[in-house]
Predict the structure.
Amino acid sequence: MKMMVLLKVTKFQVSLPQSLLTNMIPPSIVHVIVANCYFDFRETLSLTVYPSIGTYDGFPSKRNYQIVIPNFWPAEEVQLNSNSLSYCPLRDSFDEYTSDCWTYDGSTLSLIVIIVTPQATSDAVNVQVAYTQFNVFDPYNINININGESKSVGFTGMVRRLVNIKQYLDDQWGIIHTLYQEDYRSLIDASEAGIRITYSPTDIGSLINGFRDNMEDTYNSVPKLNVNSTLREFLKAQLTLN
């Protein structure tokens, strides 16, 4: 297993998991890993992991990194220390990657930079992400038209909710004999939006629009499901976050 440090970028700062701080780095030298990132007006994000400060017994001279940038756009180009990285499909674990690359998780709209080549802790590590789909959509505020009324939903939270609703409906097979997958096809399609973006991140704009259309169809089709009123109201409440 590779010795990997996970950095999660949130807005203009980088946070480290608590498990990393408590289990891997002595409290007296938590500042061993310091990262900084900024956005410029050319739609480029730059992140730097600065050289380590301090030492301890067993302190590694090199580290691997996985940098996660949530609620971000797929990249046009990603550079590691001024060298371009290629795109690679999302894997189940860091250990499955064999080379430095960048990937994308559509379920969380996260750009992920994979650095498997050990980087010297005495040197700075710089990552630059260039993107062109700036402000195409707000992942926290996707507008959906429901019966002529505009409603805003957050993409990642709604996708998780849709996956759970789909599983609940699937579990009704054999219990409710009047319910079929064809009856909630738009809900299934909407619940798979994250998977589709993962496998085709460059199509994120059209896929988000497709998600919006499927959500509108889902809201309209739920009242027509041939189920009892209690289940129907439960589904409507789940979709409207009531």
User: Anything to note?
Assistant: The domain at 4-130 is CATH 2.60.40.1180 (Immunoglobulin-like). The chain has six helices and twelve strands.
